[in-house]
Fold each of these.
Amino acid sequence: MTIWEKLYIPAIAKGMAITFKHIFRKKPTINYPEQTRPFSPVFRGVQVLNRDEEGRERCTACGLCAVACPAEAITMEAAERLPGEEHLYREEKYAVKYEINMLRCIFCGLCEEACPKDAVYLSETMVPSNYNRKTFIYGKQELLIPNPLTDPEAFAKARGKRPEKHD
């Protein structure tokens, strides 16, 4: 070994050159609350129960989403629409109880594909964290999208960039 190699000067200079090179590079991290990273166009987030253009619920409680779910995260109970409720529900049968256990959900999208009425879809929203297990069981009121007639801004925000499907 030469005297230079014994003093480690070339190795120290090489290490310092690498360090200075990394100082001027763009940082790969972001400041999360102030900045958000763009998600993939195929990102699957929280499930949403959709409404039609008139604000009526699209879900007919057929149960295909619950059958298609490999994690068995969806439970529902059906009921018949009463006279005078035509403005609330699209079909004669509707879901009285609709729950998704987000701790069991694997975000596969099979519920969205199985739904013939485009009533269930996976939104662009991430599931918020929490310390209580019971808050991860979302009921119908948490899943239902805002009414487009009474709150069009919230409806558009909840809908996201998703294209509209027509029956």
Amino acid sequence: MTNPASDTAADRALARRATAALIRRYYEAFNAGDNATVISCLTPDVIHDVNQGERRTGIEKFKAFQARMDHHYKEQLKDIAVMVSQDGTRAAAEFNVHGSYLNTDEGLPKAKGQTYVLPAGAFFAIRDGKIARVTTYYNLTDWIMQVSA
């Protein structure tokens, strides 16, 4: 929510730039395998919604998700495009996931080191200069077809 007293075009532009920089830092840290920096971009009560999965709330659940993902997958995000709302409180990113399936994840096909390229996107809510919600979407059927081929 914007503050009407400071809702100038310059304030909105500054908020948009800060949010874009936050989202880029989040993804740069992800690509570097720097989980500590990824976590530093989040609010303590972060909401994490993953395509085809349950909602996770809080840093500890986010860390557990990171550990599970690091065990099963090695991914790099490429061609990242970041879009930010006018007031900087929401953002979206579109990217391509280039990955390797390292260890079998429960309920999914057997891992044999398969590689995949998958278009994906994420939506963000920003609060106090940090990510308060991240919602990720991708086509699970497409991923299953790629790793099952």
Amino acid sequence: MRVILDTSVIVRGLISPQGPSARIITYWINGAFTLLYMPPMLAELEDVLHRTWLADKLAHVPNHVPEFLEAVTILGELVDGYANVAGAVRDPFDEMFLVCALVGNADYLVSGDKDLLDLGHRLQVKLICELSSQELATIHE
């Protein structure tokens, strides 16, 4: 199974190690699915995870951010390519997730972003907003 996790899902998972976002990260680390990423997604994640306000919330796990970023590059699958999605979403920073989904043939895009979720009917990718137990089980299978 090929899955994209948007930045907010990863951040929530790292901040709250007992929540549903953390469980999906654990599923990925344990090999339940392939995490897809593109260089702009990794750059955004690195930028966000190094913000001061977030560093305080991640202080409970020393060196967690560098290790996590390294895990993305080692365990994830780098997607390379281009798809014209200009104007498909309100926020141009969200376009990278759409390109990754299309070029990487993603099965799921897990996001809390309403703009991305509104595209569910136009993509051949299942978009998941809230990580319910049922949705987690689907991704974990």
